[in-house]
Amino acid sequence: MSTGSRTAAKVADPSAVAARPARAGAPFVVLLWSSGLLLLLASVAVAVTIGPARISVPDVWSTVAAHLGLVASDLSPIRDGIIWNLRMPRTLLAAVCGAGLAVCGTVMQSLLRNPLADPFVLGVSSGASTGAVVVVVLGVGGGAVSLSSGAFVGALLSFALVLLLSHTLGGSTDRVVLSGVAAMQLFSALTSFVVMTSADAEQTRGVLFWLLGSLSGVGWSEVALCSAVLAVCLVICLAHARTLDAFAFGQDAAAALGVNVARTRIVLLCTTALLTAALVSAAGAIGFVGLVLPHAARALTGSGHRRLLPVTALAGAIFLVWVDTLARTVLDPQEVPVGVVTALIGVPAFVLVLYRTRSTS
Asked: What's the pTM value of the predicted model, to 2 decimals?
């Protein structure tokens, strides 16, 4: 093989590009994963202790061990209930939502080759909002359908509309984004119309609080469902890690490398839409996690997705655990919607990302 051919082969190999940053070496990434996992466990344990009731980290570990059948707990039923039934499910769901939204953002930014792409660019969040409002305000389902179920159905309907529109318009990357914007505007308008014409003051306040993101009142069923969906979707995304690396060169280059572009795009878009729908149905619309965290993780690991995706998931989980802790305690006893706090933190962080991108371009 000639020198020019060998050079072209190296450029055409996505794993070679992903491995270029020295800071993304295997020992560094293993250390990063281990440190991130330990930090996440510590964050969950400490976050559960923060609140009006005085609870210590040993109390948290004792309660968890007791409910897992490892030891007998000597805590009172009230303190045990505060830890196991109130704070622990909420904190764990925050971690799951943070990890899932960050992973979705990473995949979509690579798949669509758009650094501004986030989990809600496909209109999933707006569809979920409409579904939730239809159930709560209009009473569709006669009480047999929960807010979460309505939100999930609305999210899937919105995504189905995006797929239909983008396929009709040609199915290219920019058409997917434009279809998502159109669906987002449509379902946002429908949500506003229903709230304005049919909701009373109390319903409007409750719906708006949920639309801004809320983890209050969640239970173990939501944690189990969202965790299972996250695990399945993360495995699918990791299985397509090298394919996502190939998309860094564009669709034509990915196709030349043997990637089935149309099939891969459908599989990954459906995966991220399903995960986003599950998370939004449980916690409402929490923005900026999937937009900012992938950029921060890439600065540590480089662009190779086999290394990037787990780091992004851990970063998103840790971030949202502490954001939720801040949201429920900063104005105690009043609670701030989680989406408000993520926006207040995410906007300056995203401006910094844009500034650094501009400086290096």
From this structure: 0.87
